[in-house]
């Protein structure tokens, strides 16, 4: 192979080396943009009382126009995409780790089993995928908490300013607080750790949710592939259906936690006209966050907007997982100048990569 820095082989090498990230990042970005209107409506329904989703759609359009449905989406898009792509990469590393542990203990590899045509899920595959999902969700919660906090604050800034519809002038449009302004207000009022308000609820939600998400996705995909006699592990129909189902399962189980988190976070920005108070200490910020979360958890329905998140999840995950799996196939099919398709230091067997040591052993 030509190993020169500008050679096609070198570009293909690094594309394959970082396949997981390069496949997941564009898929995540497009899925976030496609599902943003439903995400915005969901967040507003969690934050204020609306009769139903259509009532919230109409109110959002009256007060914010079309832009309101994508509020808080584009500015943090890079950070959201990076965080979610990181989650896929962590998940891959974690499932390889779990696979190694299970193979050492039982003599069978869950990853090799799941990629063999005609096989069905078992306790080992489910343990591998749900365990890896838990690790991915817990690690990513650290970076995603500030991102989601700022996104939620931006999405609901006009809503918070109108005071549940502003009965005096329900059609009035209030100024939207930008992502940067939201960040400054939160730091000014709560200190730097204010950006992690709702972290405990977030890490619980994402640990449980990611475990269910990846567990259901891999299990459903394998079952559908085998049931319909698919010759490859990632047939388009199975991937799309598994993507739709896994999101529903994860959100149904964790939606109350998401509502509690959103309500706790919404109190940090307040109305557009409010003047920032003096900075609090980090300890006070954490105490305030905990009290706010507890108060929010005790009031109102935790299921407001769940229909929006289900619709959004079906749409987003069908797009995201279909693009993700197809991009991986495209990258796998790239050929080096010598005709090979795998990295020189990697041996692939039934979908599981193993590094080849310098002496030629796995």
From TrEMBL:
In terms of SUPFAM superfamilies, this protein maps to: Mitochondrial carrier
Q: What GO MF terms are annotated?
A: transmembrane transporter activity
What is the protein's membrane topology class? Multi-pass membrane protein
Q: Which UniProt keywords apply?
A: Membrane, Mitochondrion, Mitochondrion inner membrane, Repeat, Transmembrane, Transmembrane helix, Transport
Where does it sit, as one GO cellular component term? mitochondrial inner membrane
Report the source organism. Cladophialophora chaetospira
Q: Which residues cross the membrane?
A: 20-38, 236-257
Q: Which family is this protein grouped under?
A: Belongs to the mitochondrial carrier (TC 2.A.29) family.
Q: What is this protein called?
A: Mitochondrial thiamine pyrophosphate carrier 1
Provide the protein's localization.
Answer: Mitochondrion inner membrane
| Residue stretches of each Solcar repeat | 15-97, 124-223, 234-330
Entries under InterPro entries matching the protein: MCP (IPR002067), MCP_dom_sf (IPR023395), MCP_transmembrane (IPR018108), Mitochondrial_Carrier (IPR050567)
């Amino acid at each position: 192979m030509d190993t020169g820095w500008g050679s096609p082989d070198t570009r293909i090498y690094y594309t394959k080396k970082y396949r997981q990230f390069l496949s997941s990042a564009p898929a995540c970005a497009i899925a976030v943009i496609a599902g943003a209107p439903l995400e915005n409506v969901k967040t507003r329904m969690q934050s204020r009382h609306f009769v139903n989703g259509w009532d919230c759609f109409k109110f959002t359009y009256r007060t914010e126009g079309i832009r309101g449905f994508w509020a808080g989406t584009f500015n943090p898009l890079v950070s959201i995409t990076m965080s979610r792509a990181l989650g896929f990469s962590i998940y891959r590393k974690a499932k390889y780790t779990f696979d190694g542990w299970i193979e050492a203990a039982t003599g069978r590899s869950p990853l090799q089993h799941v990629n063999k045509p005609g096989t069905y899920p078992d306790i080992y595959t489910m343990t591998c995928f749900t365990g890896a999902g838990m690790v991915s969700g817990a690690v990513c919660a650290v970076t995603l908490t500030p991102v989601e906090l700022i996104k939620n604050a931006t999405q609901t800034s006009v809503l918070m300013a109108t005071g549940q519809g502003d009965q005096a002038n329900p059609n009035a449009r209030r100024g939207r607080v930008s992502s940067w302004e939201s960040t400054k207000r939160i730091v000014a009022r709560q200190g730097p750790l204010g950006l992690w308000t709702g972290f405990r609820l977030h890490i619980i939600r994402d640990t449980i949710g990611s475990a269910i998400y990846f567990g259901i996705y891999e299990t459903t995909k394998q079952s559908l592939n085998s049931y319909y006699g698919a010759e490859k592990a990632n047939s388009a129909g199975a991937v799309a259906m598994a993507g739709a189902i896994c999101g529903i399962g994860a959100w149904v189980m964790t939606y109350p936690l998401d509502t509690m988190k959103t309500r706790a976070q919404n109190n940090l920005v307040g109305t557009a006209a409010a003047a920032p108070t003096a900075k609090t200490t980090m300890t006070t910020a954490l105490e305030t966050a905990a009290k706010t979360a507890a108060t929010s958890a005790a009031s109102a329905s935790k299921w407001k907007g769940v229909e929006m998140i289900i619709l959004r999840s079906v749409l987003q995950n069908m797009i995201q997982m279909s693009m993700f799996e197809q991009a991986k196939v495209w990258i796998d099919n790239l050929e080096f100048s010598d005709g090979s398709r795998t990295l020189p230091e990697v041996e692939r067997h039934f979908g599981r990569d193993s590094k080849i040591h310098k002496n030629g052993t796995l």
